[in-house]
Amino acid sequence: MTAADGWHRLAPVSPIVRAGRAAIAIAVLLVPTALGGGGDPRKDLPQLVVVGVLLLLGFVSWLVTRWRIDGDDLRIETGLLRRQSLQFPLAQVQAVDVVRPGLARVFGVAELRLRMGGSTGGTARLAYLPERDVEPLRTRLLALAHGGADGAAAVDEIEERVLASVPTGRLVASILLSDVGFFAIAILAGLIVTAVAAPAAAKGAFGGTAVWVVGGLTMLWRRFNQEYKLTVAEAPDGLRLRSGLVALTSETIRPGRVQAVRMVEPFVWRRLGWCRLEVDIAGRQRRKGEGEAQRAPLRAVLPVGSHALAEQLLGRIVPNAPTERRRPPRRAFVKSPLRYRFLSVGRNDTCVVTTTGRIRRVTAWVPLAKVQSFRRVQGPVQRRLRLVSIHLDTAGRSVHANLRDRDGDEADGALEALVGLARAARRSA
What we know:
429 residues, 21 strands, alpha+beta, 7-stranded antiparallel β-sheet, 6-stranded antiparallel β-sheet
């Protein structure tokens, strides 16, 4: 393909894969009819009509959707009655991900997803393409996003170095010892106790309890499926993350695209020396419906691991992160007696780090080049204690650095210094 590519269509099986669970349900409904169970054909007519309409709509959607690479842009056109022509500048691409749901793997196709910049940035989705075409196209799009003239790098195999991989046993233990795991265990324990102590009441409340059990198990499964065998590798185009059991995800985090990094240490995990490292990327969304999107959770680059491994990954994501931190003044104990010992702040010329949380300790690193705004906040209690909080906001909008409960003079001096350092960091970037 050249810079003036012609129009291309998606894989013909795309409507079936997009239907997902609905396609499986339709297949189940058609099995008795296909096997010729001897029933009345007129009873199966409504099912056949519904299936026919869905297949027709899916075929029409596939027929009117096409895409092409036009210079430095990706263009996607779709719609029959209401025609849409979407244009995505590759220079604004945050990352190019490859997603392979379970049904897509059965049909040998995959989704290519381009995440654009901005907290409300759109997502360009090519769902679905033949697997043999996905990786070459992804590499070419990344080459164009990096400023390549014709994406020639797409034909070259990019070497990568594995930095971390999460063992399955540790992942299972960490999920069970997390808030999601405790929630599911509490539901199961309550069900067992109720069944033993009051069988009649348990039988009467079986329907409602079953919903809670299914909900808890679903949360456990989603967490496990998303983070199963997560592998982090370093490549010239950024950090590559691969994970998944049924639905496989391959994601690339380009250099300089991370808005903030967060380390989470639940109380039980701290006793085991474990932590979780997550990144916040501008424009990271998940699909809610066709044409709709909503904020996605932070991307875990280390679902569970040691502090040494987390610091190694942090050095790749946020070079020259500050190590020294200072506590707030002693009078801040009056306002925050429980978490006073866990409040700390550190900074250098390129990054700010903050720590808070007694039961669930959270440490956040924010590169100054990514700061969008500074906010000086002083509540009524803080005014009495001569304390000030400085908030640093980023485009990611999920992780923020908060210089909480600092001395007023110290906070004002830090605010003035940080504004200048952020301006200099953006120029350098």
